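Re: beginner question about structure tokens

> Can someone show what the tokenized structure looks like for a real chain? I only ever see the sequence side.

Sure, here's an example I had lying around. Input first:
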Amino acid sequence: LKAKVIENGFIFDSSWITRSLNENKAIESVLCGHSELLVIALNLIQEPVPKFIQIVKNLRVCGHCRK
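And the corresponding structure tokens:
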């Protein structure tokens, strides 16, 4: 999914990373681990006309996933 969103012009915003990265971690790998972002990307990729989806969490959604 990460490759598909990059291919379609998505730009990852590293300002949402709140911890220091290991030298072997890419910005994309840290920000692509959020399940709410993955479900949105999957909906956009799989459906010719994306369906309405509702994401419910008991914690806040990070700003990167919300944009």
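Each token stands for a local structural state, so reading them left to right follows the chain. The chain has one domain: 2-66.
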